[in-house]
Structures are given as C-alpha cells and as structure tokens.
Amino acid sequence: MKILKFLNEKFEITICVILLSVMSSLLAVQVFMRYVMKASLSWSEELARYIFIWLIYLGISYGASIMKHIKIEAALALFPKKIAPYVVIAGDVIFLGFSLFICGSGYGIVRRQLRLGQTSPAIGIPMWIVYAAPMVGFGLTALREIQTIRFRIGRLRRGSQEGEG
Description:
mainly alpha; 5 helices
C-alpha cells in the first residue's frame, strides 16, 4: 500500500528530480571536459538532449498531478461562480482527450521506430526509447487527468450536498 501511495503522490517528481540531476551533472562534466581538459565528450550532449525530452513529458504529467496545467484564470473569472467549476471540469475533459490523442499518436510512432530499428548517432540507443517519451508522458497525464476529474466531480457533489442540507 505504501508503494502505491508513493507512486500516486511522488512518482513523476522523483523521476524528474533524478533526470534533472543526471542531465545537469552530465552537462557540467561536458563543460569541464571542453574548457578545462580541452577535449569534449562526443555523446554527452545527445544524452542530455534525450534526458531533457523525457523530463519535459514527465513534467507535464507532474503538472497534471498537482492540478497546475495551463489554464487562463482571467477567462475563468468571466464565468459566474456557479458555472466556473463546470468550466474547469470541461477543460480537464478536453485536456484528457488531448492527452489520449497524443498517447495514441506516440504509440504509432514508437511502433514505426521499432520496425525501422533506428539508433541514435552518438550513443547508439534505439530511437524508440526517445520517441516513447510523449506516449509515456501523456499516458501518465491521462491517468492524472482522470484522477483530477474524479476529484473535482466529487468535490462538486459534496459542495452541492452540503448546500442542500
């Protein structure tokens, strides 16, 4: 149960911290090698780029998990207070649909990369690993959006029940 709680609350941020630490360390080593040792690493920038790509997509999922994805607060203020929660839920449903679309598109790209067998030039890692980042990130985002929608609907129901009683 503790593992599930950890995964639910801290999975994305933990992976993001690890990826950001590895990427920063890797770039620091590259700068040291280039300017102090006068010899650069041929693979470090490519690996840092791929780590950054994964960091971006997992960061989107983290933003969704803390309910902080992009929305326009000023536009939300234009709606009456009774309608605003429904507008927020509608926005979450649209974002869920977008996440599922990107996840499905990413799946097609990953399948194609698996068929082609393309590898990265400097490191030689299979490119499907890099192309899987949007699929995984938006798959996690879709799960987080489902959790968010359930939370908002539950809060809305509890609020209406409290108002009636």
